[in-house]
Amino acid sequence: MSLCQSIFYLGVLSGAFIFGVLADRYGRRSVFMAAPILGFSSAVLSSFAPNFLIFCSSSAVTAACIAGMYQTAFIIGIEFIGGQWRVWCGNIHSILFAVGAAVLCLMAYYVRDWRQLQFVIALPVAFTLSYPWLFPESVRWQVS
C-alpha cells in the first residue's frame, strides 16, 4: 500500500505542474472545467478497479486532478480578491482544505469498505462540475 501512496503523491506533484502550465496557457476556467471531469471519472474508476495496477494509476490521475483543482481554485480566488483581503482569502481556502481532510477521516470511520469509501470520496467532486459555469475567467489571465 505504501507503493500506491507514493504513486498518489507523484500524481499530486505532476498534476500541480501540468495543470499549472495548462492554466497559464489556456486559462484558469478551462482547466477548472477539465480537471473535475477527469478527476471524478478516475475516482469512480478507482472504486471499481479490478486490480492493483489500475487502482494505483487511477488514484494517481485523481491526485493530479485534485492538485489541479486546488491550485486553480486558489489562483482564481486570489486574483478576484483585492490586495488587502488576499491573505485572508488564502487562509480561508487552506482552512477549508483542512476541514475537508477532517471530514474525510469521518467518512473513513463510518464507511468501512474501501470500494464504497472511494466512491463516497468521489461524490463531492461531482459538485465541482458546476463551478466553472458560475465563475468567469480570471481577469489577470485575460489581460496577460
UniProtKB/TrEMBL annotation:
It is a multi-pass membrane protein. Residues 1-144 form the Major facilitator superfamily (MFS) profile domain. SUPFAM superfamilies: MFS general substrate transporter. One of its GO terms (molecular function) is transmembrane transporter activity. This is Major facilitator superfamily (MFS) profile domain-containing protein. Keywords: Membrane, Transmembrane, Transmembrane helix. GO terms for cellular component: membrane.
